[in-house]
Amino acid sequence: MQEVVVLGVGMHRFGKTGDAIVGNKSVTELCRAAVDMALKDAGVSWRQIQAVSAASSRFSGGKGWGLNGNDIVEDLGCTGVPVYNLSAGCAAGGNAFNVGYSLVAGGIYDMVLVVGGEVMPKGMIQTSGVEDVNDPEFLRQRCVGMPGPSFWATLARRRMHDYGTTEEQMAKVTVKARKCAVGNPFARFQKEVSVAEVLASPYVSDPLRLFEICPVSNGAAAAVICSAAMARRFTRKPVTVATSAVATIAFDDALPRSLAGPVPSGPSFHTEAKAAVMRAFEQAGIGPREISLTELQDNTCYYELAFPEEWGLCEPGEAERLVEAGETAPGGRMPINPSGGFVSFGEATTAMGVFQIAELTWQLRGEAGARQVPGARVGLAQTNGLGGNATAAILKR
Q1: Which single residue of 59, 76, 200, 271 has CA 20 to 30 Å from 231?
Q2: What does pLDDT average to over the chain?
Q3: Which distant-in-sequence residues (6+ apart) come within 8 Å of 317 by Cβ?
Q4: Cβ–Cβ under 8 Å, residues 97 and 357
Q5: What is the pLDDT of residue 150?
Q6: Distance (Å, rounded) from C-alpha 196 to C-alpha 2?
Q7: Of 56-60, 76-80, 198-202, 331-335, where does mean pLDDT reach its minimum?
Q8: What is the DSSP letter of 22?
Q9: How far from chain centre, in Å, is Cα 168?
Q10: DSSP character for 307?
Q11: Model confidence at 183, in pLDDT bands (50, 70, 90)?
Q12: Residue 184 neighbours by CB under 8 Å, 6+ apart
């Protein structure tokens, strides 16, 4: 295994179709902007890229076949470079990063481009793309009427029951996230909100309100990764990839993933996310209390409270107190999503895992501006997606 570093990163600001940020740009146009920025940041040319690992989905681009990496190659120049198209729901960007990392770490290539971008359809994400009576996801939505926000609401209600979490405490998670995003030029929402404004926003699925759930967005992110030996030709301050891990759901997961069946008791929610993060800690030889900052998948404020506890970043039931004490802000002892997170960016599904790598890189370089975590040395990124997919990556300087 050879050491892998992040040499350059890029991003297109997130927005929604028709607005002043992304207008009617195609996913390839968004990715082109992110890739151009990453190549410039790395100080390399397109011809120096030896392979492409691209996140793809059924929502946009890819010729309808998830061939997003091929679209990018056609746009930038057909150099004959090998392309790997990856689909893993909302974890696709993290999966694409893992494949790129593995290709470089294994010595197959010395320099790989990782990219993810999305133009999302309007409205709530339909998890199933086909009306197939054998598909549990289709049946969950059609027969039970339980889309994503309702699913997240059940998790939030359970936490309120277990720990006495209040709606005001959940609102404070959004307030913190949006305050971080004010200083982030790539965030879709760059305006602070108050607790009163969050609590005045309408319920989407009780107890979760509009400002506490990430909308769908359009956006793109890219990263140029390479071997440490090659990086020495381009920079004296590379960001090292300590590890990248992938996991899927386990038998002891307590979430109701399908229509019926026995459900294990106990707090084993999102076993795929916990397994990926624990695997990353083990592979990197880095413990949870050594993490300087975390970028986690906050489709809703619930996850900023639950995930840090499940991964050992803090004690069970402690997250609400840390949020209220400002400890999850960039200047606190456990910074969570200093970028502003999904709540401030919205979710451009395949871009998110790469977007997190870009944010960690800027933080570890000390280039994050007003949202900079002081003295950041180690960063954790995490995604999870449909199908019980999850990823985690640890970067360090």
Answers
A1: 76
A2: 93
A3: 162, 163, 309
A4: yes
A5: 87
A6: 51
A7: 56-60
A8: T
A9: 25
A10: H
A11: confident
A12: 190, 339, 340, 344, 369, 371
Bridge partners (DSSP) of residue 30 are: none
Q: What span, in angstroms and rounded, lies between the C-alpha atoms of 123 and 349? A: 14
Which region among 84-98, 167-181, 252-266, 288-302 has the lowest average model confidence (pLDDT)? 252-266
Number of H-type helices and E-type strands within the chain: 13, 11
HEC-encoded secondary structure of 190-226: CCCCCHHHHHHCCEEECCEEHHHECCECEEEEEEEEE
Query: Per-residue DSSP letters for 40-86?
Result: HHHT--GGG--EEEEE--SSS-GGGTT-HHHHHHHHH------EEEE
Quick one: average pLDDT of 75-88? 96
What proportion of the chain, given as a percentage, has pLDDT over 90? 81
Q: Which of 114, 109, 40, 36 is nearest to 77 (CA)?
A: 36
Lowest mean pLDDT among 116-130, 194-208, 247-261, 345-359: 247-261
For residue 359, give both structure tokens: 């944010």
What's the pLDDT score for residue 255?
67
Distance CA 274, CA 290 (A): 17
Task: Give dist(CA 21, CA 130) in Å, integer.
Answer: 31
d(CA 174, CA 204) in angstroms, rounded, equals: 15
Q: Cβ(299)–Cβ(293) under 8 Å?
A: no
CA pair distance 315, 229, nearest whole angstrom: 40
Backbone phi and psi for residue 23, each to the nearest 5 degrees, phi listed first: 50, -125
- pLDDT over 80 at 26, yes or no: yes
375 CA to centre of own chain: 23
**Please, is 195 exposed, middle or buried when counting C-beta atoms within 10 Å of its C-beta (0-12, 13-18, 19+)?**
middle
* pTM strictly above 0.85: yes
Give CA–CA dist 83/113, Å, rounded.
10
C-alpha closest to that of 82 among 108, 54, 105, 50? 50
How many Å apart are CA 201 and CA 209, to the nearest integer?
Answer: 6
